[in-house]
């Protein structure tokens, strides 16, 4: 997961602070030095780091700190606030045109993920009740047109492509017109990129913007490119006047610093984050939630939103009731595992749960997706009674029978039982947290 290294280092720094009780100015300075190193190592732009630390110093040192009841907590709070500000404050949405269609121009370098992200965005907006039209305007690469057509087909979203060798500008204009007649309210234009930033590309995109007058120009940036991403974003912004940025490949093993710098350097919000190759792996970027993830506070809101998107309400209510009353059985576990798989890679999901954020701890509860097949086989080899109350009923000979029936081993059966217990505990935590959120008014 992106930010894992940064997250670990910051959490370690704050753990040390917490252990100290009363803090002197020297303690805070030492902690800030560590924060600075952690940010630099995470590949955050050095100018950005310098300003960041200066602002924290201003707020974290002095009278308020000495007087606060829990000084370490005070420092964490200040760092959290600054991280949120650094990433752009509140979450910013796509500006929809007062009169449809809303035209979105997607720009970026080749390989950044522009085509994939165009399709993901169309998919996302459709889930929000919109009727998107995808437009293939990368006329230089026939493969790109084909790629968008394939993605559109997968999603069942129409793709406007004109194979007659027309200019991107005329394709864009024709597409906007076809959106009006076809009753489409959002037009997403996948423009041509280049290997690197050059004058030809900029002039071409400027001309397109001038002619089409899009409501949003979104730059797609590959987070894996690190500091180079900052330079790319700066150039695109100065020439085109961006409305926002979409960072892709945040699922990768990137240090993530680019994400923290792009917004600070361009002043333009990161609107979405790409978290995988699949077409549903796009999330609105919430700076506050991301800061909480980095500081190990978990990201329960995103998790709940994802769950609500993917589980139907009746199913959720039924499961919750079972969990609350501790009637949750292995059969439900199987159903749940299949459901949870829809939310995305398990490691990503678990990292959103507070306290589980430290990636190291995840190792023992990690469920390999391929293992689901075995899990299912094991549970299917049990009698209904065994599924309902495995702890009481299962003895050695029954376990051997189940292992044999499912083509697994007794160890694997035991491991599943352990996972089941842990999941039960985690789910209870989840339900409690949801209750607390409802109570505090953070959730309807
Ligand atoms: P384009 O040249 O900018 O249009 O880039 P593509 O859309 O063809 O994407 C380039 C590669 O990046 C493809 O293999 C995509 O599947 C991959 N990709 C795009 N977004 C993401 C993401 O968020 N995560 C991961 N892991 N891969 C991505």
UniProtKB/TrEMBL annotation:
<keyword id="KW-0963">Cytoplasm</keyword>
<keyword id="KW-0378">Hydrolase</keyword>
<dbReference type="InterPro" id="IPR013822">
    <property type="entry name" value="Signal_recog_particl_SRP54_hlx"/>
</dbReference>
<dbReference type="GO" id="GO:0008312">
    <property type="term" value="F:7S RNA binding"/>
</dbReference>
<dbReference type="GO" id="GO:0006614">
    <property type="term" value="P:SRP-dependent cotranslational protein targeting to membrane"/>
</dbReference>
<protein>
    <recommendedName>
        <fullName>Signal recognition particle protein</fullName>
        <ecNumber>3.6.5.4</ecNumber>
    </recommendedName>
</protein>
<dbReference type="InterPro" id="IPR000897">
    <property type="entry name" value="SRP54_GTPase_dom"/>
</dbReference>
<keyword id="KW-0694">RNA-binding</keyword>
<comment type="subunit">
    <text>Part of the signal recognition particle protein translocation system, which is composed of SRP and FtsY.</text>
</comment>
<feature type="domain" description="SRP54-type proteins GTP-binding">
    <location>
        <begin position="269"/>
        <end position="282"/>
    </location>
</feature>
<feature type="binding site">
    <location>
        <begin position="190"/>
        <end position="194"/>
    </location>
    <ligand>
        <name>GTP</name>
    </ligand>
</feature>
<feature type="binding site">
    <location>
        <begin position="248"/>
        <end position="251"/>
    </location>
    <ligand>
        <name>GTP</name>
    </ligand>
</feature>
<keyword id="KW-0342">GTP-binding</keyword>
<dbReference type="Pfam" id="PF02881">
    <property type="entry name" value="SRP54_N"/>
</dbReference>
<dbReference type="InterPro" id="IPR022941">
    <property type="entry name" value="SRP54"/>
</dbReference>
<dbReference type="InterPro" id="IPR036891">
    <property type="entry name" value="Signal_recog_part_SRP54_M_sf"/>
</dbReference>
<dbReference type="Pfam" id="PF02978">
    <property type="entry name" value="SRP_SPB"/>
</dbReference>
<comment type="function">
    <text>Involved in targeting and insertion of nascent membrane proteins into the cytoplasmic membrane. Binds to the hydrophobic signal sequence of the ribosome-nascent chain (RNC) as it emerges from the ribosomes. The SRP-RNC complex is then targeted to the cytoplasmic membrane where it interacts with the SRP receptor FtsY.</text>
</comment>
<comment type="similarity">
    <text>Belongs to the GTP-binding SRP family. SRP54 subfamily.</text>
</comment>
<dbReference type="Pfam" id="PF00448">
    <property type="entry name" value="SRP54"/>
</dbReference>
<keyword id="KW-0547">Nucleotide-binding</keyword>
<keyword id="KW-0733">Signal recognition particle</keyword>
<dbReference type="InterPro" id="IPR004125">
    <property type="entry name" value="Signal_recog_particle_SRP54_M"/>
</dbReference>
<dbReference type="InterPro" id="IPR003593">
    <property type="entry name" value="AAA+_ATPase"/>
</dbReference>
<dbReference type="InterPro" id="IPR027417">
    <property type="entry name" value="P-loop_NTPase"/>
</dbReference>
<keyword id="KW-0687">Ribonucleoprotein</keyword>
<dbReference type="GO" id="GO:0003924">
    <property type="term" value="F:GTPase activity"/>
</dbReference>
<feature type="binding site">
    <location>
        <begin position="108"/>
        <end position="115"/>
    </location>
    <ligand>
        <name>GTP</name>
    </ligand>
</feature>
<dbReference type="GO" id="GO:0048500">
    <property type="term" value="C:signal recognition particle"/>
</dbReference>
<dbReference type="InterPro" id="IPR004780">
    <property type="entry name" value="SRP"/>
</dbReference>
<dbReference type="GO" id="GO:0005525">
    <property type="term" value="F:GTP binding"/>
</dbReference>
<dbReference type="InterPro" id="IPR042101">
    <property type="entry name" value="SRP54_N_sf"/>
</dbReference>
